Amino acid sequence: MAIYDFKVNNIDGKKIELSQYKGKVLIIVNTATKCGFAPQLEDLQKLYTKYKDRGLEILGFPSNQFENQEPGSNEDVKKVCSINYGVTFNMFEKADVRGKDSLPIFNYLISEKPFRGFNLNDPQQKFFNTFLEENFPESLIDDSIKWNFTKFLVDRNGKIIGRFESPVDPLSMESYIEALL
Fold it and tell me: Are the CB atoms for 27 and 150 separated by under 8 Å?
């Protein structure tokens, strides 16, 4: 199994084969427009604008699994992402990203880059770890997606290079992206 073996529906319901992204550097991220991390959509867009001509693609997967932070329809998500955050990168249909109904691509990403904990030396990650411990302790017992805006970086050959947890600002991934481009 490889990243390019998956097929997913884009936000307009059209079936997309991920094989069309062969040779590209990818960021695959689960999103939610009502999440406190939603401003990351702007930073993801900045990265996309800066690097798309060099081969970066961003694949956004909205999910309503975390505290009902993406309750609208696919059309609603598309509108909010475009109008509020200027998103022009690829968005896909709302879906589960953890649990028994999770999109197969997220099961694959997790198997390749399981959760390894938060960097507790980073104040934002430490705060978020405490938030999860206090409110959703069950989420910390497995390798799954912990929250919205978990970002996976994939090289041009389809290898998952890194997993960046929710509190990690996408712009801090820039040196990793540049190394792969």
Answer: no
pLDDT reported for residue 1: 78
Statement: the pTM of the whole predicted model exceeds 0.90: yes
Which residue type occupies 5? D
- Report in angstroms the alpha-carbon separations of 111 from 15, 85, 105, 114, 144: 24, 31, 10, 6, 9
Please identify which of the residues 28, 29, 35, 44 carries the catalytic annotation: 35
Partners of 180 in beta bridges: none
Q: Is 55 left (phi over 0), alpha (psi -120 to 50) or beta?
A: left
Cβ contacts of 119 within 8 Å, gap of 6 or more: 125, 126
Residue 81: active-site member:
no
Cα 34 from chain centroid?
A: 15
The share of the chain scoring above pLDDT 90, in percent, equals: 95
Cα-based distances in Å from 76 to 92, 96, 146: 12, 17, 24
Distances (CA, A) of 149 to 1, 20, 22, 116: 24, 23, 23, 16
Residue-range domains of the chain with CATH:
3-180 (3.40.30.10)
